[in-house]
Amino acid sequence: MTETEEIIETEVEETVTMMIVGVVTNPDSQWDEEVVSMQEAVAAGILDLAQGLYYNSTTGQYVSMVDAMNKGYVKMGHAKVSKSEEKVNSVGIITIRTTRETMPYTVQGAMDTNSGKMLDRQKAISKGILNTVDGTYLDLRSGTKMLMGDAVDKELFEVEFDMNAEGTIHEEVLKTYSVHAVYDRKKRRNLKFHEAVAEGIIDQGTGDYVDTSSGETMSAETAINKGYIKATLNKDSKEKSTSGAGSGATPKTSA
Questions:
Q1: Is beta strand 157-161 parallel, antiparallel or unpaired with respect to 189-191?
Q2: Contact 103, 165 (CB under 8 A)
Q3: Which residue of 48, 69, 73, 101 has the lowest C-beta tally within 10 Å?
Q4: pTM for the whole thing?
Q5: DSSP notation for the chain
């Protein structure tokens, strides 16, 4: 079973333009505050716009324009507020839930993709290839982590099946992908998830992908593996194993 959903985020940048509406000529003075225009302050040498400095005539020292603003020596006002064009970002979420049956097995070894050699169980665990805690396999060459059942399917594990066990192991695999782009093969362009849904390339109900070049319909997982759906496997993907009814069988994949 495949489920799809879409997360939409909007982003708007707001820019506030400030302007100098007055400059104090006698800061920290015992007399009433005198305020002149920016042009008058520049002409009098109180403001140095090129250097970004304000001259405090009371102390005879220059301070930065920022300090002068914070102390109220340079008075600011809002000129205008402008907003950028709204940006809409969408990320599609595809969840693939599959159930498969297999006999109980014990992992005897795991493939080191860097050397191309099959390592025994303990060496594979020590190198981080086999993780018996979360039930995953790590491809050292690509850095890709996959569920244990997938590694068995790809023959990356050397396993020993328990031929004497009664019943089967039911493995429920839940994979959740974040979709970043969907490739339109006919027009040779990448689309956002919602655009692909709108154009019928992704069936939002089933998650199936339609090859616009050949008209072929394929599962989301097949399209992801072929690179037609650009997606990242989320870390919350998991594999759950349960024994067949009345069999008493248990998976033998843990340390």
A1: unpaired
A2: yes
A3: 101
A4: 0.42
A5: -EEEEEEEEEE--EEEEEEEEEEESSTT-SSPP-EE-HHHHHHTTSEETTTTEEEETTTTEEEEHHHHHHTTSEEEEEEEEEEPPPEEEEEEEEEEEEEEEE--EEEEEEEETTTTEEEEHHHHHHTTSEETTTTEEEETTTTEEEEHHHHHHTT-EEEEE-TT--S-EEEEEEEEEEEEEEEETTTTEEE-HHHHHHTTSB-TTT--EE-TTT--EE-HHHHHHHTSEEEEE-TT-EEEEEEPTTT----B---
